[in-house]
Amino acid sequence: MQLTPPGSAEGLQLVVTDIEAARAEVVDRGVEMSKAFHDTGGVFHHAGTEARARGPAPEHKTYRSFASFNDPDGNGWFLQEVTTRLPGR
User: Fold this and answer.
1) Rounded to 5 degrees, what are φ and ψ at 76?
2) Max CA-CA distance within the chain?
3) CA distances from residue 88 to 11, 41, 78, 84, 85 in whole angstroms, order as listed
4) Residue 47 has pLDDT above 80, yes or no
5) Which residues contact 61 (CB under 8 A, 6 or more apart)?
6) What average pLDDT score do residues 70-89 get?
7) Which of 1, 11, 47, 80 is at a distance of 20 to 30 A from 70, taking alpha carbons?
8) For the CA atoms of 22, 23, 29, 33, what is the dihedral angle to 10 degrees?
9) 5: helix, strand or coil
C-alpha cells in the first residue's frame, strides 16, 4: 500500500450554510483561516489568490463564498457556502 505524504491533499471542501458563522466557529477553535472571499469570475474559486475578492459573494449567492485553511498535516481545505442547493444536487 502506498501512503500519500502529509500535506499533499489540496482543494478539499466542507459545505456550510453560513460562511461567516462557520469561519468564526473554526477560528474560535484555534484554526488559522483566511477571511471569507468570493470569485470575481463566477462560481468556482481559482488556484492561488487570482480573481478573489474580499468578503462573501454579493447577496450570499449560493456556491460562491469560500474561506480556506490548512489542517495540521498541511492539507488544503475550503469552506464553501451553499445557501440553496441547485436542482439535482
Assistant:
1) -95, 130
2) 47
3) 23, 24, 23, 12, 8
4) no
5) 83
6) 89
7) 1
8) 150
9) coil
Following CA atoms 12, 41, 87, 11 in sequence, which dihedral angle do they give, to the nearest 10 degrees? -10
| pLDDT at residue number 45 | 66
Classify 44 as helix, strand or coil.
Answer: coil
Between the alpha carbon of residue 44 and those of residues 24, 35, 59, 73, 84, the distances in Å are: 22, 17, 16, 25, 16
- Eight-state DSSP code of residue 58: G
Count of beta carbons in the 10 Å neighbourhood of residue 37:
22
3-state helix, strand, coil in the chain (%, to 5): 15, 25, 60
Helix, strand counts (H, E) of the chain: 1, 5
Cell of 82: 451553499
SS3 state at 12: strand
- For the cut 90, the answer to whether the pLDDT of residue 1 exceeds it is no
Residue type, 60: H
CA distance 23 to 20: 5
